[in-house]
């Protein structure tokens, strides 16, 4: 099974959800001309890291963002991995990702499990507690968020649960772009899965962001990689490659779960 995937590597207007929604609508309308099966947005694309204003600008129960993304998915008959948004609920504010199928149905939700202290997330956000598993056109997938990639055991847990494609949405700064590249390629090789990583471009008052959105195959080959500028990247992935690589070097069968 083949799947054409487009990552939207956009700049994000600091603390301005309505402006960012306009940008996403325009970018999705542009992306759809190439007929992708899946469109992927970056982390916190509605607000950016305007954390001190989240009380005011976070999305109440994520409803507004869900409706917006659902309508786009249904209108264009495309699966959407909806980056993440700041969701405000009675449990506090979370950095939350939604997944939509071609009918605009929300097929999964994931809230960032590892909060990134270097960017003050722990002062403003609550961590999630569940995995981000979902399916796209029948393929087993997972979604995780930015700093989560530094935890190989968390990514492995999704692969052990069957994920063949892991979507990473991010606001990863340029200062650590080599970590970003190396970690993503490593996660693809060690889990023998596709990694589809959508990072933001541009800057905010504290950081310049790396861009370098990437699609990596289960052998660790980079199929496509963006520059640091706002852009879109597209790759067609072949799900059969996952089984092929896992058969060639059967690391899942060879794991010593009696030892670790
Ligand atoms: N938004 C994030 O989680 C950034 C993570 C990051 O920059 C890192 O180095 O890790």
Overall number of structural domains: 1
Q: Helical element count?
A: 8
Instruction: Give the structural class.
Output: alpha/beta
Overall average pLDDT: 98
The fraction of residues in strands falls at 25-35%
Helix amount, in percent? 25-40%
Please tell me the CATH architecture by its name: 4-Layer Sandwich
End-to-end Cα distance, whole Å, is 33 Å
Give the key terms.
8 helices; 6-stranded mixed β-sheet; alpha/beta; 8-stranded mixed β-sheet; binds ligand LYUYDEPV; Nitrilase/N-carbamoyl-D-aminoacid amidohydrolase; 260 residues; globular; 14 strands
Polypeptide structure, described:
The structure is a single chain. A hairpin with a 5-residue loop joins strand 6 and strand 7. This protein starts with a strand and ends in a 6-residue tail after the last helix. Strands 1, 2, 3, 4, 5, 6, 7 and 14 form an 8-stranded mixed sheet that branches. The protein has a 6-stranded mixed sheet with strand order 8-9-10-11-12-13, with helices on one face. The chain is globular and about 50 Å long. It has one domain: Nitrilase/N-carbamoyl-D-aminoacid amidohydrolase (4-Layer Sandwich), CATH 3.60.110. The mean pLDDT is 98. 28% of the residues lie in helices and 28% in strands. With 260 residues, the protein is an alpha/beta fold. The protein has helices at 17-31, 54-57, 63-76, 121-124, 152-160, 177-191, 240-248, 251-254, and strands at residues 2-9, 38-40, 59-60, 79-81, 85-89, 92-100, 106-111, 133-136, 139-145, 165-170, 194-199, 214-216, 222-225, 231-238. It binds the ligand NC(=O)CCC(=O)C(=O)O. The site of the ligand NC(=O)CCC(=O)C(=O)O has 11 residues, from loops. Residues 43, 116, 119, 146-147, 150, 171-173, 176, 179 line the site of the ligand NC(=O)CCC(=O)C(=O)O.
